[in-house]
Each structure stands twice: as structure tokens, then as C-alpha cells.
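Encode chain A's predicted structure.
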Amino acid sequence: MKFEYSSEQQEQLFEDIFRGSITPNALPVELYESISAYLLNGLDKGYGKIAIEYEVKSKALKKALSNNIYRFSGAKTFQQTYEMSLILSDKPKFKVFKENAQQIFDTYNKTYLETEYITAKGQGYSSKKWLKIDSDKKLFPYLKRVGVRDKNQSEICRPLDGIILPVDHPFWKGAGAILSHWRCRCIFEQIDKYEEPNITSDALLTEAERLADEKGLQKMFKQNPAITGNVFDKSHPYFIVPKKYKKELENNFNLAIPNSAK
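Encoded structure for chain A:
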């Protein structure tokens, strides 16, 4: 699926912001709907079909993850609209405004959005995977974090690679969550109860987490989406808004969240 927001829609968006009919208090609904549809498609592709034995938990989890996508899309729509509106403080001519607004639009909806789509897909997959891991923990009580050991392996993932701990260990809810950065490729490997794995010591775990933090592990990735119900953590910069917009953020900027996701 491609992100669908035509050049004509973009032109209209810029005109509406320039004329004042679209503002940080009155966001462009069509842009919000296009962003949320695109990211929800990524979530759906990653989540896929779920086994019937996880169906009840799965429905609740998928609902929470979808709700988070809508709220993230609302915050993303706000941030770019807010940035475009700031250009108007210099009272530019429309041509100058449009050039600057286009750059902002492309940054949010080309540069950033592709990575966000991949993240939604990855978090969807890891959430579904965690339902199985949690349900199977009596047979497979341990987890191993496995990274792709090639030239592209992230410095963030390297110290966390190979950690083995019980499924219920808090590490998997925080720094050990399956995605540790944008475009992360790590996976979980289940270990059955008949094996005698080399459990990672507290000292080694502490050092691994310290090194990952040092290399840039962000707070937004220190969460397990299957537990929090968040594809994108609330520490993401999109959710950080000027004080006067805090209430609007809580209300998703008056942008609709379909009943299926509430």
C-alpha cells in the first residue's frame, strides 16, 4: 500500500493553512485519515492472522494498538500543521510559504513516514509473537534475543544480542523489547524447559543495558507493545506539544477515532 495524498490535496492543504482555514486548532482531516490508514496497513501486515487460541487476547490487543496508531497520526498531523503555521509569522508571500511548507510536508510524509510504517509493521509482528510466547511459557520458559550479525547490525542491538532470560523477566518489558530502534531486525528465540540455557547474569545484563543506552537506545523503544498496547510510545516527539495544546492532544485534536479502535 502506498501513502495516498495527492499533489492536488497538498496544494489545497497549503492554501488552507495560508488562508487560515486550517490551523493547529483545526487540523486537516483528510491528511490525518491518509496517515492513519497507511500506518494501520503496516500494523495489519505485521500482525497478520492470529491463532484461534489467542483470539480473545488478540482482539483486545489489536484494538489498543490501532487506537495508538490513530493517536500517533493525530499528533503527527498536528506537528506538521503547527510547523507550517509558524512560517506565517514572517508574513511571506504564498510562493515562499508553499516552498517551505512543501519541505515540511515531505519530511513528515516521505522521510519519516516510511520508517514509521516499517515500525508499525514490526511492532504488529512482535505483538502477535508475544501472545504466543506468553501462552507457551510453561513449555518454553526462556527467551533469547537474537540479532542479525552482519555489517549493518546496530550498535544499540550489539550488546543486547544473545541475552537469555526467563519469559517473565522485566527485561523483556523494557530494554529487551523486540524493536530497539527504527528498522530493528532482532527476533526472539524460544527455549524449551528441557534445555539448560546459560542464563545471563545480573551483572552482564546491567552492563548490556548500560551500553545500549550509551549507544542511543531511546525511551520510546523501551516498551513491549503487546504489554503496553502502544506501537509508538508516548515519549515520541510527536506527543510533545506546547502547553496550550495539551488538552487537544488528550482529545486527539478532535480527530475521530473509529469505534472499532476505541
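The helical segments are 7-19, 29-47, 55-87, 94-135, 202-214, 225-228, 246-250.
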